[in-house]
Amino acid sequence: MEYEFLERLNHGPIDFITQTKYWIVFLDRDQKNLGTCVVALKRKANLLSSLTPDEWKEFKQIVRLLESGLKKAFNVTMFNWGCLLNTAYIKLPPHPQVHWHLIPRYRDPVEFHGVVFNDPCFGKSTLTAQDDKLDLSLKFRAKIISVIRENLNWDNF
Length: 157
Description:
Blueprint: H1 4-8, E1 15-19, E2 23-27, E3 37-41, H2 53-74, E4 78-82, E5 99-105, E6 110-112, E7 115-117, H3 138-151
Helix pairs in contact: 2-3
């Protein structure tokens, strides 16, 4: 599965979790906050205001299912969602693509397969810890994806 905009996100090969009619969900490469995901619109779109009512409706369902599934999987305290599009404008011409960052936030450390994850800036913006990226092995990311999928109640979609 290839999506041209993922190259512009500098993400490399995606760690696919699931997809719907309008959206694709994948694990973010940076896992300093365990379970961080990206939800990207499949069609080309550069403004939130260009989303159709059906795309918004489906996105709302994805938010509900991901938040519920991640909470069950990792005991998430709260969630941050962001649609920034900033990096799309670094190079000219810009190529923005509507996508959302889902960042689980943890008051307490979380242990997963022997690795302890500490939310580096709980109670503050994750932008304050931009330099502290955690890039895990493909095998470890696959374990995270497996647990997320097990806890998504996608049958109710």
